[in-house]
Amino acid sequence: MKKQFAVIGLGRFGSSVCKELYHLGHDVLAIDNDEVKLNGVSDYATHHVITNATDESALKSLGIRNFDYVIVAIGDHIQSSILCTMLLKEIGVKKVWVKAQNDYHHKVLEKIGADRIVRPEHDMGIRVAHHLDSERIIDY
Ligand code: ATP
């Protein structure tokens, strides 16, 4: 079933999520405050807008509350990621998934109500270890 996604922050992680969701046939709104980053996904998003995702009125004017999922993929700017996540939950977005940069970031995101927190390198490291472990069992 087609869903409405908004992806905020189009670094390597955010742009990859954005492109894949679009290829899977979903509606995707791509948001970044950097025009160059935004241009990189313009062919892989239903809509794209230059916006500061820490500006509450700007988020509201995008109708962000109506999206099924909002993915916050601002990693390096931890303060912006936290503020943006807090605003999204205050506005009433039901599902907010956020990329965390480190343990401290993860802890704060939990406290302010992020629905799912992902740590791409950390999570993938664990998956790879499990794959390697299952290969060991098969090899045996
Ligand atoms: P990745 O590791 O996924 O490549 P990154 O660490 O290289 O991410 P970040 O610096 O975390 O990239 O930022 C991700 C994106 O978020 C950038 O494209 C940046 O322009 C965007 N961004 C940062 N702050 C804001 C903001 N306040 N509003 C909108 N976009 C923002």
Oligomeric grouping of the chains: single chain
Total number of beta strands = 6
Q: What ligand molecules are bound, each kind once? A: adenosine-5'-triphosphate
Q: State the helical fraction.
A: 40-55%
| Helix count from the secondary structure assignment | 6
How are the elements arranged and paired?
Blueprint: E1 4-8, H1 12-23, E2 27-32, H2 35-39, E3 47-50, H3 56-61, E4 69-72, H4 78-91, E5 95-99, H5 103-111, E6 116-118, H6 120-139
The site of adenosine-5'-triphosphate has 20 residues, from helix 1.
Characterise the protein shown here.
The structure is a single chain. Helix content is 47%, strand content 19%. It is globular and about 60 Å long. The chain has six helices and six strands, in the order βαβαβαβαβαβα. Helix 5 links the parallel strand 5 (95-99) and strand 6. The protein has a six-stranded parallel β-sheet with strand order 3-2-1-4-5-6, sandwiched between helices. The chain has 140 residues and is of the alpha/beta class. It has helices at residues 12-23, 35-39, 56-61, 78-91, 103-111, 120-139; strands spanning 4-8, 27-32, 47-50, 69-72, 95-99, 116-118. The structure holds adenosine-5'-triphosphate (ATP). Adenosine-5'-triphosphate binds next to helix 1. This is TrkA family potassium uptake protein. Residues 2-118 form the RCK N-terminal domain.
Gist?
By secondary structure, this protein is of the alpha/beta class. Helix content is 47%, strand content 19%. The site of adenosine-5'-triphosphate has 20 residues, from helix 1.
